[in-house]
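Intended use. Records like the one below are meant for learning the mapping from a protein sequence to its folded structure. Do not use them to infer anything beyond what is encoded.
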Amino acid sequence: MLLRVNTVAIVIFLALSLHAQQQAPKPQSALVIQGLGQGQVKLNGFWQFHTGDDPRWASPSFDDSKWEPITASDSWGTQGHPGYTGFAWYRRHLEISLVPGADAVYALLMPPVDDTYEVYWNGKRIGGDGRMPPRPYWYYSPFFRSFSVPSAHSGTIAIRVWKSPPLFVDPGSLGGMKGPPPILGDADSISAQLAVSNTESTLQYLYDFSLMILYGFVTLVSFLLWSRDRKVGLFLWLGIFTGTPALLLMIQEFLITISYGWGRGLNQPIYALNHISLWFLLLYLLRLDGNRTLMRWTRGLAICTLIAGILDGCLAFFWGSAGLWMQGADTVLTTIILLVEVFPFVIVAIGIRQRLDHANWVLAISALVSQMIDSIADTGAAGQRFTHWTLFDIVNRPLFSVHGVIFTAEQLAAIALFVSILYAVYRYNTEQRSRQLLLEREMHSAREIQQVLIPEALPSLEGFAITSAYRPALEVGGDFFQIIREESGSTIIALGDVSGKGMKAAMNVSLIVGVLRSSSDASVSPLRMLETLNRCLCGRLQGGFVTAVLLRLHSDGYVTLANAGHLPPFLNQRELEIAGSLPLGLLPSATYDEISILLRPGDQLSLYTDGLLEAQYNRRALRI
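Structure written out for the chain above:
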């Protein structure tokens, strides 16, 4: 009886042991793949994970049962290792059964990884991305890559990952694999999946690509307009404002093979230039470019911000070996850039204190909203590993999507600011063109006045040959000359230069000519005529003045000459000695001297304005 009981007990024990052996769980990282042929399979589930670095961890025989299980769909920073940088390993055991007769070549598709990695299959390195320390090299924008797998039989995938030191604005949730898991399949299928992954990435950033094209077009037009008239700084800053985000998008989305050092090295100064250009655009469009104090502050902050951006970008070239001092420098430089982001608020606050039209009001409001969102996002990103603020995630949270293109509050604010700037520039340019047309009409009218006042045909004087040349540098100059025949047979010749140009100068010339003609009389000497003209001009030139030389030419060759601050005439290539005197229109009691000379046959008397000497401004020469 006892034997039967023992026999039954042994049978029950063996049965339970066999059942327990059949039900024993496999390691958490094991993945069974049955019937692998022409196709692919996602390596979902848990991977064995361990921080640190040891080359033995690539071996398929290494026991990783005590490692921590984490998924490949989230970074290690979100799975219990926030802020961790350095080396870490992922391992996954695969039990693969192939389709009978399958002889396909297989490959592994790897998603983007922070920051550089190596892939091992059964202890053999089959590929990687970037370069490991001590001289690390990784890409600014990680991308999908595929690697050939020597054999698709059962084995172990080991992935060695290195994460660079964190920036001041980096969250603690970075590191390792994230997003879609690795995919194993035949080479053709993986190649097609790689193309699909890149296409999905392009569609996801379709909005950015379209905006980049638009920004680039506006930049080209702005620089062309600026090259035509470099005095209009508005178009220069508009070109920089639209060109910098186009460059940033190109670096982040198109130049996917650019290194991290060059990517961030270019990103930081370009980012600083984008902010600087917005400041100067606001100054021009809000009519504050005449505020010297504000312009001086803007230039100073612009220089400091650009230097901080350049220095912060230079740190990226050495970031693979960044120590505490480099991280501290990054913190200081980034803080400087973040602090000056509030400067547009100052500009807008000053601008709205003056009368603005609706275009400038729209611009001011758009700039405030856009800059507020940017400041909240950037401030939230700064030091978020320590503060655990979620402002950055909140601001960049998708609001809606159109055909798969996601829009955030920051993007919508950027669109509104871009459109308002274009509209304000259009209004500004329209106003400038209207003013230019008005000025051209005014200059044309002044030119007509001057044509009446400047004799086109010189009178014939018996015994004398008179020639003249008049070449105004502007459409209307301030130079004048008059030849007035008197009843006594003598001739009054007046030549002078009115300060200023344009319509104002033309009107002053008309006043001078009128006084000269009304005061011309044989009994009045050139000296008295200048004194009369001086009294009439005082108080009417609005701070201007007139230089003039006046002479009376007698038929017998005698010349009586008076000068009011004008360049002395030349007699036969010799400058006449005339006492200095004040120009007309400055002092009512001013007095002038008078000299007399005799012109003999063959003598040449030359009167001219200062433009003849400068050779770049108005030119007037009169030869007798």
